[in-house]
Amino acid sequence: MTGVLGHETAPHEGPDPASVAALIVELQSVGLRTDAEVETRVGGAGPTDAGMLWIEGFPVTVPVRTEDARRSPYVLRHEDDGGRAIYRDGRRLASVADTRRPRYYDRTTADGVPYWKIALLHLDSMASTVVQTCNYWNTADQCRFCGIGVSLAAGSTIVKKTPEQLAEVSVAAKELDGAVDATLTTGSSTAPDRGARYVARCGRAVKDASGLPVEIQFEPPRDLAILDEVHATGGADAVGIHVETFDPQVLAHVAPGKARTGIETYFRTWERAVALWGEGRVSTYVILGMGEDPDLTVAACRRAVDIGVYPFIVPLRPVAGSLMEDWAPPPGPYSNRVYRQVAAYMSRRGMSAENAVAGCARCQACSALNAVQPLLQIGRRPGAGA
Ligand code: SF4
Questions:
Q1: 40 lines ligand 1 (CB under 6 A)
Q2: What residues does each domain of the chain span?
Q3: Nearest CA to ligand 1 atom 4
Q4: Which residues fall within 8 angstroms of residue 37, CB to CB, at 6 or more apart?
Q5: What is the model's pLDDT at position 46?
Q6: Domain 103-377, what architecture?
Q7: How confident is residue 65, by pLDDT bands cut at 50, 70 and 90?
Q8: Is the pLDDT score of 6 beyond 50?
Q9: How far apart are CA 180 and CA 336, in angstroms?
Q10: What sign has the CA pseudo-torsion 27, 292, 123, 158?
Q11: Would you say residue 235 has pLDDT above 60?
């Protein structure tokens, strides 16, 4: 483990940005013990099972429910003044802002569905898996890191959210809890559009009702002309089309369905999407810690950046109930190296999260990329301490 932080802080004295970046990288690797209650997200599409915190003003998701997290040297504690902070070996490392239960979770639609089953609040982003089924689920093609069927089986969501339900919840999420955008994803379908049209309709309803910027996420449609149609709905300010890993051998093992789509198909789809939505408004998840070649990964992230795609790099977050639930997140130093190389390239190409406007790349809570990137611009090394 690396990134031992340089100094402790008094309750009202902030640590320097390099220490905060190092702490985030480490927490996303080793997890966080909690003596205090934390809002968490369980199940869903993609990486989940995370506690959601504001650490020194940075939105961060960290593992809190895993065995590793229960053994983590980092612990979240209440403080005498009513605040909370992260400690290691009795040293205070960083302040944590309150993450209370969203107020809108207490509401119910006219037809009796609790709002929290329709969309969750991820820090300041309303998020929903609008269709909670995927044609790959429970087949040999199921993505091994994914938990989309877990929350459905647990009864903590409904199988399909209507545009009207999402619109209603988005207004409450904005007005009662300060949501600043909406992230709408969907399981994949066998239809030619892979579910993109429906999630775009949902996005349009959310935008019309609440005015929130929206990111929609879907798999590459079979026909790229569908992207033009999706863009024309006006239901998305940004899109996420997620290859998950650039290493073809790893992709074939962890996401066989996506591997059959093919990495070059993702690049072709991104090119068309960037032409429609603009540079930095098209993103892909890039999950670290699944056995990938890091040099190949960095090179492919640079290629994505070159065509205007934001590579949203995240460490593997093993989801309980997924096929990778027994895996561990990658070591912090490994993630840190990849973050640094890609962030430096992004800075050279003028790309940052500021262009993202909505969605995962705007929120940044699952990644330390946005905490690391400014340090490179001012010549600091995350993990170097004070
Ligand atoms: S395509 Fe993969 S990651 Fe997406 S919902 Fe289906 S199984 Fe999950």
A1: no
A2: 17-97, 103-377
A3: 187
A4: none
A5: 44
A6: Alpha-Beta Barrel (3.20)
A7: confident
A8: no
A9: 28
A10: negative
A11: yes
CA-nearest residue for atom 5, ligand 1, is: 187
Side chain identity at 241, as an amino acid letter? I
Does an H or E element contain 304, and which?
helix 294-306
Residue 45 has pLDDT above 60, yes or no: no
Nearest C-alpha neighbor of 162 from the set 121, 132, 136, 189 = 132
Structure tokens at 95: 């302040």
| pLDDT value of position 37 | 67
Helix axes 163-177, 196-210, angle to 10 degrees: 40
Quick: pLDDT tens for 16-28: 888 899 999 999 9
- Amino acid in position 176: L
Question: Which range, of 216-225, 268-277, 365-374, averages the lowest pLDDT?
Answer: 365-374
Note whether 228 and 200 are within 8 A (CB).
Answer: no
Helix H or strand E segment including 78: strand 74-78
Q: Does 46 contact ligand 1 (Cβ within 6 A)?
A: yes
pLDDT at 7 over 50: no
Residues 231 and 248 sit within 8 Å (Cβ to Cβ): no
How close is the Cα of 143 to the center of ligand 1, in Å? 6
Atom of ligand 1 nearest to the CA of 137: 7
Average pLDDT over residues 68-78: 92
Mean pLDDT to the nearest integer, 126-130: 95
Residue of 48, 129, 136, 139 to mutate, ligand 1, most atoms within 8 A of C-beta? 136
Residues 6+ apart with CB under 8 A from 295: none
